[in-house]
């Protein structure tokens, strides 16, 4: 019988950084799942992401800026942020976030 994986303790260590614009207001945030392999190995780390929010409030693009350790948490972090939603502003906005993964 498998037990549920713990969710990542995603800490907003980096605030949304948006040049000369108001920060988008989140309406839906999905926490990343902690990868099973990382749980078994006791691995912790972080992923720094940059994302684009469309005028409709949905995340349209996500890219990884930095991750430690590499190739461990990136997929989970990107998958989660792609599901986030923000108050629709009618204009495209960009943001940056750091998600920390700790057990």
Task: Write up this protein.
The protein is α+β, with helices and mostly antiparallel strands and 103 residues long. The chain has a single domain, classed as 2-Layer Sandwich (TolA/TonB C-terminal domain), CATH 3.30.2420. Helix content is 14%, strand content 32%. It contains two helices and five strands. The protein has a three-stranded antiparallel beta sheet with strand order 3-2-5, covered by helices on one side. Strand 2 and strand 3 (59-68) form a beta hairpin. The two termini are 21 Å apart. InterPro entries: TonB, TonB-dependent_transducer, TonB/TolA_C, TonB_C. It is a single-pass membrane protein. This is Protein TonB. Belongs to the TonB family. GO terms for molecular function: energy transducer activity.
The gist of it:
With 103 residues, the protein is α+β, with helices and mostly antiparallel strands. The chain has two helices and five strands; from the N terminus they run E-H-E-E-H-E-E. The protein has helices at residues 36-41, 74-81, and strands at residues 26-28, 45-53, 59-68, 85-86, 93-101.
- Poorly predicted residue ranges: 1-5, 7-20
Provide the number of structural domains: 1
According to CATH, what is the topology?
A: TolA/TonB C-terminal domain
Tell me the series of helices and strands, N- to C-terminal. EHEEHEE
Biggest sheet features: 3 strands, antiparallel
CATH evolutionary superfamily? TonB
Number of helices: 2
What global shape is seen?
Answer: elongated
Distance between the termini: 21 Å
Pfam families: TonB_C
Domain TonB C-terminal: 19-103
Protein name: Protein TonB
Keywords: Cell inner membrane, Cell membrane, Membrane, Protein transport, Signal, Signal-anchor, Transmembrane, Transmembrane helix, Transport
């Amino acid at each position: 019988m498998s037990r549920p994986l713990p969710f990542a303790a995603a800490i907003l260590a980096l605030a949304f950084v948006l040049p000369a614009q108001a920060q988008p207001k989140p309406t839906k945030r999905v926490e990343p799942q902690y990868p099973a392999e990382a749980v078994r190995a006791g691995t912790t780390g972080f992923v720094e992401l940059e994302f684009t929010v469309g005028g409709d409030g949905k995340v349209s693009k996500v890219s990884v800026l930095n991750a430690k350790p590499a190739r461990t948490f990136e997929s989970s972090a990107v998958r989660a942020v792609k599901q986030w939603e923000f108050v629709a502003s009618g204009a495209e906005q960009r943001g940056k976030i750091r998600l920390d993964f700790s057990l």
